[in-house]
From TrEMBL:
RNA polymerase sigma factor 70 region 4 type domain mapped to chain residues: 125-173
Gene Ontology terms, MF aspect: DNA binding; sigma factor activity
Species per Swiss-Prot/TrEMBL record: Chitinophaga niastensis
A GO biological-process term: DNA-templated transcription initiation
Name used for this protein in its record: RNA polymerase sigma-70 factor (ECF subfamily)
Entries under InterPro entries matching the protein: RNA_pol_sigma-70-like, RNA_pol_sigma-70_dom, RNA_pol_sigma70_bacteroid, RNA_pol_sigma70_r2, RNA_pol_sigma70_r4_t2, RNA_pol_sigma_r2, RNA_pol_sigma_r3/r4-like, WH-like_DNA-bd_sf
Sequence ranges assigned to domain RNA polymerase sigma-70 region in this UniProt record: 27-94
Family: Belongs to the sigma-70 factor family. ECF subfamily.
SUPFAM superfamilies per UniProt: Sigma2 domain of RNA polymerase sigma factors, Sigma3 and sigma4 domains of RNA polymerase sigma factors
Amino acid sequence: MNQEKICLDATTVYALKNGNTKALTDLFKFYYPQLCLFAARLITNEPAAEEIAEETFMKFWQRRDNFETIQNIKAFLYITTRNSCMDYLRKAVREEHSLKQLTYITREDDDEFMQTSIIHSEVLGEIYREIEQLPPKCKQIFKLSFIEGMKNQEIADHLGLALPTVKNQKTRAVCLLKTVLLKKDVWTMVILLFSLLRLLTMY
């Protein structure tokens, strides 16, 4: 079955204030992938980025009474993640690569860079959420191909499927994703389709 769509609104904020763990789970499912992408873009270390994103939610939970809107929560999550990334790079500043990254995210046009990074992570997060809505077999094959980087024959052998079945499921997945993305507003549609094409050409 497809995963339930997550809707974050004033009810979610109220539930979070009251310590509702279901609301926290929904918030985590919605923003965690985006924060991982955002952090990874800043520090170019995926495992560390995932840890930073997890720690951000722990910090949020400790301060959950301080937020009145989803927008406030979103801002806190991104700012906290960004600050943690800077702390991470400062600790590794003796390494040339980390020094370059730290300089990169603290440069004069920092605001523009941060906005671009946030948009980038949100766009990819939206694509990944739509991937999760694909039919089970379709989703499994799509992930193995375009995310894990497996070849068609490798997928067929791994899942015990005929090669034509794998190809058909991949084609179906792309068509379904395009159909969904075309329903977005014009600017979002353009950005999402461009990002999807980049994702599809990575392998």
